[in-house]
Amino acid sequence: MIKAFFLIFEPMVTWDRIAQARRSLAAVFITYLMPMVLITVSVEGWGLYHWGKWQTQFQKLKDFPANTVITYEAIQTLLLVGMVLVSALVLLRIAQTFGGRCSYLQTFKLIAYGFSPLFLVRLLDAGPSVPPAATWALGVLLTIWILYQGVPRVLLPDPAHAFGMYLSSIIVVTLTSGLVRVMTALYLLGYVDFHNSWLTHKFPGLFQ
Fold first, then answer.
1. pLDDT score of 57
2. Cα(108)–Cα(110) distance, rounded to whole angstroms?
3. Count of alpha carbons within 13 angstroms of residue 148, beta-carbon side
4. Which of 108, 155, 183, 206 could be joined to 88 by an S-S link, Cβ 3.0–4.6 Å?
5. The pLDDT of residue 204
6. pLDDT of residue 58
7. Is the distance from CB of 80 to CB of 41 less than 8 angstroms?
């Protein structure tokens, strides 16, 4: 979590340290990505359980029982982890079209650390009246900001392709994180009713 602040306020130095650390994919996943995700969903889940969420279309504060919060945050954990893994894979494929020789480890490190501001800002989602779109927009803007320094240091692209890779990374993180945010926000704001869904009929009590 502290590294997220360093990436925002000292991106060049922090990215240099990340690139030189030579940590394995498993190490980054276990010691950095998963703790960030678990802290994010835990804080948001705590807020949903204790304060609920303001649903504008119904003009009411919706309460979320404990089992619903646990189910929702478990699903969101899978979505956030999948977001990072898929984003890294897509970026790797794009890098290969530029003639780059980077590995999945490099794109994974860039995306995992690059999404740090997004996870950090999403702690504000614990607030009952904080719009999900607001935290996503601020988090993505900060992610775009730090990726500018991260792409050349972690992916090591040819100078002629560096800016193209940076633009590609912006598109990837915006689309993948936006898709995840839309899916979760629709439920939180009451636009999707899982109580009457096929999933709930197959697994009674899932979203009760």
1. 74
2. 5
3. 9
4. 108
5. 58
6. 74
7. yes
* Among candidate residues 138, 141, 163, 139, the one with its CA nearest the CA of residue 151: 163
- Distance, CA of 68 to chain centre: 21
The pTM assigned to this predicted structure is 0.89
Under DSSP, the state recorded for 58 is T
The predicted pLDDT at position 208 comes to 53
Both tokens assigned to 90: 């897509």
Task: Please list, residue by residue across 145-157, b when 16 or more beta carbons sit within 10 angstroms of its beta carbon and e when fewer do.
Answer: ebbebbbbbbbeb
Please name the residue that has the structure tokens 């899978």: 78
Q: Which of 141, 132, 142 is nearest to 72 (CA)?
A: 132
- The segments of the chain whose pLDDT lies below 50 read 196-199, 201
> Which residue, 127, 139, 129, 128, is CA-closest to 181?
139
Beta strands in the chain (DSSP E): 53-55, 60-62
Domain boundaries, the chain: 2-202
Q: What pLDDT shows up at residue 49? A: 93
